Amino acid sequence: MNLNGNFQVLGADRYSVDGSSGGKVYLMGDKPSSDPDKVGREVMSAKADFDFIDQLREFATQFPCLCSVDYEMVSGAKKSITMKVTKVTPVKKP
Predict the structure, then answer these.
(1) How far is CA 42 from CA 16, 31, 35, 59, 79, in A?
(2) Tens of pLDDT along 43-55?
(3) Closest CA to 14 of 50, 44, 57, 47
(4) Average pLDDT for residues 4-25, to the nearest whole number?
(5) Which of 9, 25, 68, 94 has its CA 20 to 30 A from that of 83?
(6) Number of independent structural domains in the chain
(7) What is the CATH number for 56?
(8) Range of the domain at 50
(9) What are 61-64's contacts with CB under 8 Å, separation 24+?
(10) Strand pairing report for 20-32 and 2-17
């Protein structure tokens, strides 16, 4: 199931090590953390395919920027649920 949300996209990176490859997209929440032990906005990482990072290059000079992010929830480490980004589109300012 594909989901969508608006996030500040900070950037992305990818890796390829010993036959395993993938990428990470770094997102920032739009509200300060509600955790009393944290200050400021939380930064999160989401999975992405290795080749997905190439799709972000056309927007690279705009980061960080508000983007519409398509994602799906997938199985992560130790039976956890994690976010996998499938599409990023910068939100045009009015």
Answers:
(1) 27, 8, 10, 22, 23
(2) 999 999 999 999 9
(3) 50
(4) 94
(5) 94
(6) 1
(7) 2.40.50
(8) 2-90
(9) 62/90, 63/9, 63/10, 63/11, 64/8, 64/9, 64/10, 64/11, 64/28
(10) antiparallel
